[in-house]
């Protein structure tokens, strides 16, 4: 199988022209976008930002830069791997963005993409009064993107972040250290609430919620992510059910649970007779539930 490459003349082209060519090459392939990008244009930009070590937005002076020979080769390698193997781009660049923060990622963790990012950037308003929240528990932290973004957004919080996967927590530890949050975010390896103690004002979780049959029919890109972090039994409720059942003793009386249920949302409403508030998002995303502690007892 031949590599897919930029035209040789691109080595002498400006970044603006390279972006156009990358977008055209990506756009003609049958790729799935949804792991931190939503289009070929987004992916082309992400490749350039990574290889040239740039920040968005790009000004006109930057767009006129010519690539070095190494940068040109690195772009071609990313392009080839992305198109031929359909590996999600963040696994190739080892970086993903969440709440405007850069996180290290690899195939030990899911690629950050939860709409909870918008909720955090909006200070949890109008759903949660953050001034009443002091202690937070995140279940299934993965890369740590939610817990660490919460810590950055709200300096007064103390956060416990758990995951059953030791490899995932290794990635979370890398990000915790990089963001200098070791004193405020405690990482614990455990299965949901096992061996945890104390109560929290807020429990937040983006657990696995994809039914097995649905997972088997997802685009190839999803096959590179840890299945353990995606699949949740026949109806997608294996972990959601346990969290709803086991959360009450860990919540303060006026606390709340925020849980992403994604494509299992309809099943959640069918199975559970709970007063659920479904959080709305301006920039896309759905299936994030808010349930007050008093309704979980």
UniProtKB/TrEMBL annotation:
Segments spanning the bilayer are: none
Q: Can you list the GO cellular component terms from the UniProt entry?
A: cytosol
The reply on keyword Ribosomal protein is no
* All residue ranges annotated as the Methyltransferase small domain in the record: 132-213
Q: Which Pfam families match?
A: MTS (PF05175)
- CDD domains associated with the record: AdoMet_MTases (cd02440)
Going by the UniProt record, its keywords in alphabetical order are:
Methyltransferase, S-adenosyl-L-methionine, Transferase
This protein's record includes keyword Transferase: yes
Gene3D superfamilies on file: Vaccinia Virus protein VP39 (3.40.50.150)
GO MF annotations, alphabetized: nucleic acid binding; protein-glutamine N-methyltransferase activity
Annotated GO biological processes are: methylation
What InterPro entries does the record tag this protein with? DNA_methylase_N6_adenine_CS, HemK-like, Ribosome_uL3_MTase, SAM-dependent_MTases_sf, Small_mtfrase_dom
Q: Which residues form a coiled coil?
A: none
**NCBIfam families, from UniProt?**
hemK_fam, L3_gln_methyl
Which PANTHER family has this protein been placed in? 50S RIBOSOMAL PROTEIN L3 GLUTAMINE METHYLTRANSFERASE, RIBOSOMAL PROTEIN UL3 GLUTAMINE METHYLTRANSFERASE
Q: Per its record, how is this protein called by name?
A: Methyltransferase small domain-containing protein
């Amino acid at each position: 199988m031949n590599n897919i490459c930029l035209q040789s003349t691109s080595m002498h082209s400006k970044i603006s022209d390279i972006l156009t060519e990358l977008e055209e090459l990506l756009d003609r392939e049958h790729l799935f976008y949804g792991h931190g990008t939503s289009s070929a244009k987004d992916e082309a930009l992400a490749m350039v930002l990574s290889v040239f070590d740039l920040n968005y937005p790009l000004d006109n002076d930057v767009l006129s830069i010519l690539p070095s020979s190494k940068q040109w080769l690195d772009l071609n390698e990313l392009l080839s791997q992305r198109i031929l193997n359909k590996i999600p781009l963040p696994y190739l660049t080892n970086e993903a963005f969440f709440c405007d923060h850069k996180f290290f990622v690899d195939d030990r963790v899911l690629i950050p993409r939860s709409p909870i990012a918008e909720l955090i950037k909006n200070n949890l308003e109008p759903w949660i009064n953050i001034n009443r929240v002091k202690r937070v528990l995140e279940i299934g932290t993965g890369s740590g993107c939610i817990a660490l973004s919460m810590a950055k957004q709200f300096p007064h919080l103390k956060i416990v972040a758990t995951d059953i996967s030791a490899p995932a927590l290794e990635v979370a530890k890398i990000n915790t250290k990089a963001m200098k949050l070791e004193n405020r975010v405690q990482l614990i390896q455990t299965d949901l609430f096992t061996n945890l103690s104390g109560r929290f004002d807020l429990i937040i979780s983006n657990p696995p919620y994809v039914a097995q049959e649905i997972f088997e029919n997802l685009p190839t890109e999803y096959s590179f992510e840890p299945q353990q972090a995606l699949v949740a039994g026949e109806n997608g409720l294996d972990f959601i059910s346990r969290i709803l059942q086991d959360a009450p003793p860990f919540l303060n009386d006026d606390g709340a649970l925020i849980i992403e249920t994604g494509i299992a949302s309809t099943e959640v409403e069918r199975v559970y007779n709970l007063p659920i508030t479904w959080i709305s998002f301006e920039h896309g995303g759905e299936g994030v539930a808010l349930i007050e502690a008093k309704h979980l007892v």
